Task: structure prediction
Amino acid sequence: MTTADAAALELRAAPARPTDGQPLDFVLPPALEAREPPEARGLRRDGVRLLVTNRSDGTIQHARFVELPGHLTPGDLLVVNDSATLPAALRARRRDGQWVPLHLSTRLPAGLWIVEPRQTHVEANDTLELPDGGRILLLVTYPGSERLWIARLDLPVPWLDYLRRHGRPITYPYVPGQWPLEAYQTVYAQEPGSAEMPSAGRAFTPEVLAHAARRGIGLARITLHAGVASAERHEPPTEEWYRVPPETAEAIAAVRHRRGRVVAVGTTVVRAVESSVTPSGHVIASQGWTSLVVTPRRGVQAVDALLTGFHEPRASHLSMLEAFAGRVHLEAAYRAAVAAGYLWHEFGDLHLIL
Result:
């Protein structure tokens, strides 16, 4: 990483104090976009880099993810999202015969979906043809979005079977190649439902989990089915289905009682756990649809540490990180990450905020 590259973290219009609606904006050097899985770069999953920053004293450490358990304390609790990634990208044909990309985002009740037709203009009541006789009827735009639609799918087989047969993982231009669905799954994934991988947990391996257990670090699960990102427009997240099971709520209560730390693995975990917080600040078992958007004004109540990837400029996830760590800390961490050549996006490096 050259001096010129390091200087490229050019922060734009940073407010004097945290304000909702203005996520951190900066210039991301293209060389720092991870374009393939770490395994294709000769690394193990757990060989990616780990930036460790401490909110209390401002220290910054550079490590490898395999060393994560050593940065945690016996009695801490890792909370992971066990939602499995769907092959949610399809090809759809417009009435004029043109094939366009279609991303399935969120499965709704009554056979409806939130979908994103990409690189094309569509209107209400348009019907798109899908492979093998499938069809999709676009009904109305999703409230508050310029890119998402509520649609009805008509498929020749059950939806999950259809996606396994005809879908592929959602990708964006910074990943030019095609990788199998397994490259987009965490080792603890169980329930299919996420349009995009809950990628903060991708680097976990059985060995890292076993090391954490030997150190007395607990593990609990939530499920949140993540929708598609807003890579171009930076819209806030849509409603997403989540579940915080009783055993996880109990584990969080127990660790907080003994003054250990709740370590959220990813922003999806923060959203689910914070959606289960009562007015008195306790996490209870719950499930359903959450529209919660964590902002600096709202704050974070039930999470003590956060493992997350590096997010693109103006991404709504950065507002959640600012709510957790503060704008000054976040700016310092991102400057350090650019200067040291950390990699961004789902196949990139990770950031542990303590």
In short: The mean pLDDT is 93. Residues 327-339 form the longest helix (13 residues). The chain has two domains: 3-85+179-353, 89-166. The longest strand covers residues 99-107.
